[in-house]
Amino acid sequence: MQREEKIEAFRALHHGPRILVLPNAWDVASARIFEDAGCAAIGTSSAGVAFALGYADGQHIPRDEMLEVVHRIARAVAVPVTADVESGYGDAVATAQAVVEAGAIGMNIEDANHYGKGDAASLLPIDKQVRHIHDIRAATDLVINARTDIFLLGIGEADTRFERAVERLNAYLHAGADCAFAPGVRDAETIENLARDVLGPLNILAVAGTPSIEELEKMDVARVSVGSGPMRATLALLRRIAEELHHRGGFEIFRDAIPYAELNALLGGK
User: Most CB atoms within 10 A, among 19, 163, 218, 235?
Assistant: First the structure.
């Protein structure tokens, strides 16, 4: 599938009769497992990539290191890949152009500036973020998923967050974003109201306690992603393995491991 076909196919998945279930990979192996399971597209997890390379989340990883992983994933899979590039690493347009060069066909761009601590200073001014999205749209053909962190960071009085999030997301869509992302919500009423008031496809971040995929689809949510959840769940299993080894336990924990030959073949071996 050529780049233009991937972009068209990925954009169309946001408007189909079924919700787009977008898994988030952090390396080539996880991306290939998602693809092999039949996933129609793959997102990267900025936190997952950062953790795997030894960085804390929140734009601590250098842009080039993040995009090297995006490039490896995009090269390894046939399905469309969209890249999570946090707030753009200081130059959102240059980062978007680098995402194109890395082989991805979409990007997440968030409005957190990573300097605040859950207050108004934690978000870029709405007019500045609108300019970023407008400029990205003018400079690239990427499918843009524009995110607000009002709910995720708990910014402002709780009874004002919904209206402010909707205002930001609709402004981002008007500036050229293809999808609006509101992580940090999991109660059905708020999700349903967002799907009603956001004037474009809505992306929800799924965590424990989020309504099921079937329920989200009935609420008219267009896209559900899982962020660093799969990577952190994998590390939880690794922690159990570490504890078994440290306490001189048995090795039954490896019983469900993917067979060596199967994984080797999945990654191009014989």
Answer: 19
Any residues with CB less than 8 A from the CB of 261 and at least 6 apart, and which? Answer: none
Residues with pLDDT less than 50, the chain: none
Q: What are 202's strand-pairing partners?
A: 180
Question: Which residues make Cβ contacts (< 8 Å) with residue 109, sequence separation at least 6?
Answer: 85, 87, 88, 92, 96, 132, 133, 136, 144, 145, 146, 147
pLDDT tens for residues 70-100? Answer: 999 999 999 999 999 999 999 999 999 999 9
Structure tokens at 177: 């974003």
3-state secondary structure string, 55-83? CCCCCCCCHHHHHHHHHHHHHHCCCCEEE
Token readout for 158 is 């709780």
